[in-house]
Amino acid sequence: MQLLYFAWVRERIGMGGEEVSPPEAVETVADLVAWLSSRSDGHAAAFAKPARLRAAVDQAFVPLDTRIAGAREIAIFPPVTGG
Fold it and tell me: How many CB atoms are located within 10 Å of the residue 3 CB?
């Protein structure tokens, strides 16, 4: 699946996205975030406080407990504010 990172998540990880194949035990966005946090120090820094993150699965905003089976694209980003 394709992952996209935005704002400070992208800055801490050091890239705008990556292609991953998570293990079968990764069933939700929250599981994915926990698994990703072990990939590098940047990932660990970006995902240290999962409650501060928002996500979209296949371009639809979702809560972190959303299942990811069959997802092609997941975006992870901080809360968005208007301006």
Answer: 19
